[in-house]
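User: Can you model how magnesium ion sits in this protein?
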Amino acid sequence: MSRFDQYFLMKEKDVFEYVQEKIKFFDKNAKPVCKEIGDGNLNYVFRITDSMTGKSIVVKQAGETLRISDEMTLNVDRGKIEAQILGIQGQFCPGLVPEVYLYDEVMCAIIMEDMIGHEMMRTGLLKHHTYPKFADQISTFLVNSLLLTSDVVLNHQDKKELVKNFVNPELCEITEDLVFSEPYLDYNERNIVFEPNRSFIEKEIYGDKKLHLEAAKLKFEFMNNAQSLVHGDLHTGSVFINKEHTFVFDPEFAFYGPMGYDIGNIIANLFFAWCNGDATSTSPQEKEEFCGWCLVTIKEIVDKFIEKYNVVYDKVVKDPMAKVEGFKEYYLSQILSNTAGTTGLELIRRIVGLAKVKDITSIEDTDKRVRAEQICLKIAKDCIMNRDSFLCGDDYLKALLKAIKG
Ligand code: SR1
Ligand code: MG
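Assistant: Here's the modeled complex, given as structure tokens:
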């Protein structure tokens, strides 16, 4: 009998004993320190470090209520999907996701590799750090994790088995509400609007019926296009990074959905980083370097995705009909359109909806935050309304320029 045979939400003091009981990792006499380091909206993340040996490990546990709100509850077994997908992504994208040592169905906890020497990307971006290898590494992650889990590559029966295993109704519903619905209709009255931008948002977002129609189309595409095993929440808080290397983690929103959902999320979050750099850089040089890096990275992610998609497609596609002339280009055009649409949706929901990003909320100067939010919303509308015309990285930079000019 162990006290970990029944679920309870662990505190820092419990976690070392828990790890010792579940896996062989630390020495018997180790005296490591445990710290809760999570800053996401849902779960608790503990890091245990043994300063004597330099060894450390991470434990992520699901609570019954969400960190973002006590009124929101979810099944505590949501980590199971996360542990499974990290295993799959680890096969397709070796080295780009942390290794899972154990998923415990009782305590609803994952014990995993500590991404030592990496910091959360959003935290680094807020300090205006740049990551020269990110575009290359994330585009590899995107092409491999998305294309290699799709019907054009996988045996169709195996793929359907995966679709079944990764039905993720509760987490998808959060996205369906927070990303695709509430920012437009606010029917749960949970939106949080920065007051100086209220009239802009009322006119440009709540009042724009054409925009609502396009968001509705994208919502039902998200729910019905079981294209690839997507991460489902690929913002810069789901990346751990340094100058040399990238880890993607936190895929608890994973399910079979459109590829563009992951690609667009990353692009939108780099626009938030750009806005932060634009508003808070302390010198023209810092602004030029950081904002310039954000733009090059956005452009390269899209262009490298296209380049690698074409190479991998030619190499690994199995379905004979997917090899019919013109299909590769058609399939890519659908992905790119969805990518632009998702970029717009993510930009809008983080400005108008419940779940915010620090890149924007930490801009203290009111006028600068007003400008940042309006730039995001203008790019967003362009991306959603004209999504079929976003065909390469440069199109996103043009959208930013247009938004700046008003
Ligand atoms: C209720 S959870 C709010 C947001 O946090 C997660 O990271 C997802 O982005 C979700 O939409
Ligand atoms: Mg998360």
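A couple of observations from the model: The CA atoms of residues 118 and 241 lie 5 Å apart. The mean pLDDT is 97.
User: Helpful, thanks.
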